[in-house]
Amino acid sequence: MTTADQAKAKNIAKMGDVLGTQYSALWQEVAYLHMNWKEFVELFGTKAERIEIMNKAAPAFFRMVQDELFEVTLLSIARMTDPPQSMGKKNKANLTIRNFPELIGHANTKAKVEKLLKDVEKQTEFARVWRNKRIMESAN
Q1: Total-model pTM
Q2: Rounded mean pLDDT, 14-38
């Protein structure tokens, strides 16, 4: 089995330092996102009997776990698909898949990635909208 450091070294060798490093970091984020979502589905999305047992045993605790796993999932999706720079923070780059086109030197690959990113942006807009509303609610 390949370790994260070995995979990162391989990615850097193939993609260059900046792209390989960002790709590797985002790959780890995606793996963590999938792990969280798998746990969410296993606990709250597969068996009604399981939810019944959790509600009898510790309803407030399991509601908290459900909310946290759901929120972490949406926040991860939003963060990974955010623009390369946050508003008002011109000096601070975000770790996001939207950085990739600027880091890709091969024209055909860059064009393919740009096309895919347009679709990704549309399909993940819900997470950024949810996150922004959540932040606004917390601020008020």
Answers
A1: 0.86
A2: 96
